[in-house]
Amino acid sequence: MKSALRLAAKGRGTTSPNPMVGAIIVNRGRVVGQGYHLRAGLPHAEALALKRAGRRARGATLYITLEPCCHLMKRTPPCVPAIVRSGVRRVVIAQRDPNPLVNGRGASALRRAGISVTLGVARREAEALNQAYRHWVRSKRPYVILKAGMTLDGQIATSSGKAKWITSKPSRREAHQLRAEVDGVLVGIGTVLSDDPSLTARVSPQLTRLAKKQPLRVVVDTRLRTPLHAKILRNVDEARTLIATTEAAPTAQRRALQRRGVEIVTLPALCGRVSLPALMRELGKRGITTLLVEGGAEINAAMLKARLVQQVRLYIAPTLMGGINAKGMIGGSSPQGLAATLKLKHVRTRLLGGDLVVEGDL
Question: Hey, which residues are catalytic here?
Fold first, then answer.
């Protein structure tokens, strides 16, 4: 099963909104077929493994990291009938598929066909691999990663807004790799006005070439203050941009941005600003299963206050900035007591290019 999990991980960043899945077929101690899901609309992992195994699948054991599908509400044929026809004797499944259209039905259908089914082998590892998919299926909202580059004393920019570059180049390369793996990147209008980011995923040692897969660029802009010369309006053929706004946005600016190839979505206002819960629901409907928040202090604070963040990833440079006017990672008002603070769970730390990377779940 560990080998199947390693296979599944090869689909990281390309399978959305589908999960990452790996499958291996073993007959008499030998691997006779294997495969992993690469992209929505392409064959599933078990279908690829069965095709490669051919007749050698008869009497074999199929190891698969996620329960096989049995429904027709998708672009590819269901996998359970193919498994039954193959003559596989036993199926070992790491985890149930949380999709309500499956969720135990695939395993039950295999058992009714007389196939031995073992469920739950390496379940924790399999669930960790597809934690974003599981969250999206259950909540109908994207799995949100809040990422920030900061100094050791928690500052993300100087008092004048300068932030390039606080962290090391290896940290920046990893951040671009993360962009290429998620479905969307979100910032607030404040970041667009102060930093003018492109929000594209780039590769090469100098980070100058666009990656093959680009995330949807999402800007929270209540009154459509996004300048028509902003970098997020470039590369529209390779990277799409969506601006979330409200009825307060001027019609002329809306039309001007749309002419630049930007999609505008009008959402309800909450306390005078774009409702972030409504935005998360909208992105979830669009199949955005993973979202990277790379904004400034205010959007960070708003997302955390709304309890919309599932994971935090901090790149901490070994430098001290100081000053009461420096820009901290989280804006807004401070809580009155420590009981109201947010505590990370399952904290992981590692070194990267001289920086300390801290990851934790909320």
Answer: 46
Cβ proximity of 296 and 191 under 8 Å:
yes
* Range 283-295 average pLDDT: 96
- Does residue 65 sit in helix, strand or coil? coil
pLDDT in tens, 14-29: 999 999 999 999 999 9
Spatial CB neighbours of 196, under 8 Å, sequence gap ≥ 6: 230, 231
3-state DSSP call for residue 36?
Answer: strand
Q: What integer pLDDT is reported at residue 76 of this predicted model? A: 72
**Among 40, 87, 38, 44, CA closest to 62:** 87
- Find where tokens 């100081």 sit: 322
CB count in 10 Å sphere of residue 184:
24
DSSP 3-state of 9: helix
3-state secondary structure of 143: strand
Residue 279, SS3 per DSSP: helix
Give the orientation angle of helix 45-53 with respect to helix 79-86, to 10 degrees: 20
- pLDDT of 246 higher than 90: yes
Cβ atoms of residues 102 and 70 within 8 Å: yes
Residue 41 pLDDT class (50, 70, 90 cuts) = confident
CB 127 within 8 A of CB 1: no
Structure tokens at 181: 């793996």
CA-nearest of 134, 137, 53 to 87 is 53
For residues 358 and 209, give the distance between their C-alpha atoms in angstroms, rounded to a whole number. 28
Reported confidence tier of residue 75, pLDDT bands at 50, 70, 90:
low
pLDDT tens digit sequence for 158-175: 877 777 788 999 999 999
The b-or-e profile of 155-178 (16+ CB within 10 A means b, else e) is: bbbeeeeebeebbbeebbbbbbeb
Helix (H) or strand (E) holding 200: none
Which is higher by pLDDT, 334 or 277?
Answer: 277
Q: State in Å, rounded, how far the first CA of the chain is from the last one.
A: 28
Find the range with the poorest average confidence among 53-57, 149-153, 197-201, 338-342. Answer: 338-342
